[in-house]
């Protein structure tokens, strides 16, 4: 009996030990899984940051080289002064490192174009809450620029500073050569700010910057984020705006009424800015062809914004181009689509036309639906601009393209037609906000094909996009 109790007790202890070992193993597995889960949760933001850094770096260097090639192509006298204005915050460290690595590629673009170039540099940031802006005058030594970029990468604790003040200080302190093609290249992943504390400080600094640029014919190119100051500065000085990352690019809004100061919130003002851009970027005789939306919808909008103001804008454009000495001829494409079938209707009046003829064609009766893509695909090849003249398109429309009217035509196809014709395309069109045909993450946008085309064709052909005042995109 005693032996039986001993045996039973031994079996019980063995069962208990087995149960405890199983429980320990389960606990250990669960703990290990929990550790792995915690590690993955901690690692995820880092992975996202690396992905974002890669996105910014890739877009920054690609856009930087495209802007430099454009500057080189337009420098007729073979002389370029390029001033870098770089956000020296810690968030930009990887992007700055890539700029340093690709600096020889920038120099090669100018060398291949036989350009006499020199670089200046400005950095801006805040360290321990104290703003710091540093400018260096022009030099041709790439080693000095690369050393400067390496020093910026060391400032790991720096925060974004006052970018508007840095641009203004650059214009005031750096001496451009009088004969040079003068450009700033601003790089940031943040909004441009100012330390000024007066009322409407940002608007006032922007105006002063634009005034200085107009005085000395300086162009501001920005690789940054979509916000009013950056879009205004690039658009109003004849420079280029590029998104610093793909994520930023999705959030780009076109130059809308809120992005422009009150002095240009008029039809004439928008035509004036477009004409200034043409005068600054087109370096050869030009055939300027207006593409007029002649649909019934445009007629309704025209009643609101007054046709005579659009015609006044055409006169304003002619005056600016003549004053700038641009050798230009005018032509007109009118477009609409037959109601119901959506077939394209395109009428072409080739250059040379007088501005009075252009205005009469604009005032011609409106009919049918919209047909922008079809007008581009069918109309642009028929212009047949002479080889010694530059084709410049000025699209005037109130906006959205219906899928029915655009059947058979794509955005890429229309852009391809413009590029094949070597056309600069400028758009005076519709706001992307407030239309209910599409809802995206960042709010309402107009019908996708129209807005995508208007945005991309201007960006890819060195044109500009402006929203026509009085047309807000709402239906």
Spell out the blueprint of helices and strands:
Elements lengths: L1 H73 L4 E9 L5 H20 L3 E12 L2 E10 L2 H13 L8 H11 L7 E7 L13 H16 L1 E7 L3 H9 L4 E3 L2 H4 L17 H15 L4 E8 L2 H10 L1 H17 L4 E10 L6 E10 L1 H9 L8 H8 L10 E7 L14 H10 L2 E7 L8 E3 L2 E3 L2 H13 L4 E3 L8
Parallel strand pairs: 1-2, 1-4, 4-5, 5-6, 7-8, 7-10, 10-11, 11-14
Antiparallel strand pairs: 2-3, 8-9, 12-13
Helix pairs in contact: 1-2, 2-3, 4-5, 5-6, 8-10, 10-11, 12-13, 13-14
Features:
475 residues; alpha/beta; six-stranded mixed beta sheet; 14 strands; elongated
Explain what the structure shows.
With 475 residues, the protein is α/β, with parallel strands linked by helices. The N and C termini lie far apart (97 Å). The chain is 48% helix and 21% strand. The chain is built from 14 helices and 14 strands. Strand 10 (390-396), helix 13 and strand 11 form a beta-alpha-beta unit. The strands form three sheets. It has a six-stranded mixed β-sheet with strand order 3-2-1-4-5-6, with helices on both faces. A six-stranded mixed β-sheet has the order 9-8-7-10-11-14, with helices on both faces. It has a two-stranded antiparallel ribbon with strand order 12-13. The longest helix has 73 residues, at 2-74.
